[in-house]
Every structure is written in C-alpha cells, then in structure tokens.
Amino acid sequence: MNSVDFSRIEVGDRLPELSINITAKLITGAAIASRDYQNVHHDQDAARALGSPNIFMNILTTNGFVGRYVTDWTGPSGVLKTVSIRLGSPNYPGNPMVMNGEVVSKDDTDRSVKLKVTGKNTIGDHVIGDVVVRLV
C-alpha cells in the first residue's frame, strides 16, 4: 500500500469516493464486535416496535468506517489524531453508504491534514465529521 505524499496535498483536494454495502450481517456483526448489544442493532422486531423500519448501524461502526476511509487514503503513514462525527440519517440494510472527503486545511509544523468527511445514503447524510490525520 502506498502512502499519500504530504507535499502534494492541497486544500480542496478530494478523497476518492468509497461505497460501503450496508447489510444486516455487517450491522449485527459490527455491533456485537463493539459490544453494543442494544436490540435495535440485531433484532428487527424490536427495532420496529421502537418505530424504526429495520435494524440500524451503531455509532461505533460508523466511527470505524470514518477512520478506515481516511487511513485507506493516507496509507500506512497516516495516524488519526482526532475524529469528531455527528450522526444523521440511519444506515439500514440494503441502503449503501457513500463516503466522500475533502482537505480543508494543512499544517506543515506537524504534517497534519484536516478533512471534512461525509457518508451519505439515499435518506440523507448518515455521518458528517472532521478528522485530523498526521502523516509520519
């Protein structure tokens, strides 16, 4: 895997788009892996009883996807410094999430880059976040 070249990064650069297929197995497996046993992440009947049309992804999984998206772009030289996300529309099975990102600032003193990251599905913005990544 190649690393992104810090000297070639410019404010306004766009990260490559990433589409993630959201499945019931992904939602359930990731919730269990993150020790989130709330029934809305694995029990469709329980989710519906609470007013949701289906099970939905938990915030820990979303946070993981944001981190993965950024480090896939940076390669092994990227070290996440901060990840700050806000959730919006739920991620339901069968509704892919498309992630995009943009460089909003660059700090030469510590070789860090601030990114605006979004993950959208057909309902709307699932996640909006600010990520600072340092390139070592």
Any descriptors?
alpha+beta; Thiol Ester Dehydrase, Chain A; 3 helices; 5 strands
Question: Could you please describe the fold and organization of this structure?
Answer:
The structure is a single chain. The longest helix is centred in the middle third of the chain and has 16 residues, at 59-74. A five-stranded antiparallel β-sheet has the order 1-3-4-5-2, with helices on one face. A hairpin with a 4-residue loop joins strand 3 (97-107) and strand 4. By secondary structure, it is of the alpha+beta class. The protein has three helices and five strands. The chain has a domain at 6-22 and 58-135: Hotdog Thioesterase (Thiol Ester Dehydrase, Chain A, Roll), CATH 3.10.129.10. It has helices spanning 24-33, 44-49, 59-74; strands at 18-20, 78-87, 97-107, 112-120, 125-135.
Task: Provide a brief overview of the structure.
By secondary structure, the protein is of the alpha+beta class. It has helices at 24-33, 44-49, 59-74, and strands spanning 18-20, 78-87, 97-107, 112-120, 125-135. The protein has a domain at 6-22 and 58-135: Thiol Ester Dehydrase, Chain A.
Describe the secondary-structure layout:
Layout: E1 18-20, H1 24-33, H2 44-49, H3 59-74, E2 78-87, E3 97-107, E4 112-120, E5 125-135
Antiparallel strand pairs: 1-3, 2-5, 3-4, 4-5
Count of DSSP helices? 3
Mean pLDDT score: 96
Low-confidence stretches: none
Task: Give the spatial strand order of the biggest sheet.
Answer: 1-3-4-5-2
Can you tell me the CATH superfamily of the domain at 6-22 and 58-135?
A: Hotdog Thioesterase
Look at the structure and give the CATH class of the domain at 6-22 and 58-135: Alpha Beta
Gyration radius from CA atoms, angstroms: 16 Å
Name the helix and strand elements from N-terminus to C-terminus, one letter apiece.
EHHHEEEE
DSSP summary, beta strand count:
5
> What's the CATH architecture of the domain at 6-22 and 58-135?
Roll
Task: Kindly state the percentage of residues in helix.
Answer: 10-25%
What would you call the quaternary organization? single chain
Report the β-strand fraction as a percent range.
25-35%
Could you describe the largest sheet, including whether it forms a barrel? 5 strands, antiparallel
CATH fold call of the domain at 6-22 and 58-135: Thiol Ester Dehydrase, Chain A
Structural class by secondary-structure content: alpha+beta
